[in-house]
Amino acid sequence: MKDEKGTVGHDLKKAGLRMTPQRLALLSHLRAANSPISVEELVRKGKGAYDTATGYRILDALILAKLVRKISIASDRALFEATGTHHHHAVCTSCGIIVDVEACLPKSLDDRVRVSAGFERIDDHALEFFGLCKRCAKK
Amino acid sequence: MKDEKGTVGHDLKKAGLRMTPQRLALLSHLRAANSPISVEELVRKGKGAYDTATGYRILDALILAKLVRKISIASDRALFEATGTHHHHAVCTSCGIIVDVEACLPKSLDDRVRVSAGFERIDDHALEFFGLCKRCAKK
DNA sequence: TTCTATGCAAATAGTTTGCACTAAA
DNA sequence: TTTAGTGCAAACTATTTGCATAGAA
Question: Structural domain of residue B57, as residue ranges?
Answer without folding.
Answer: 1-84
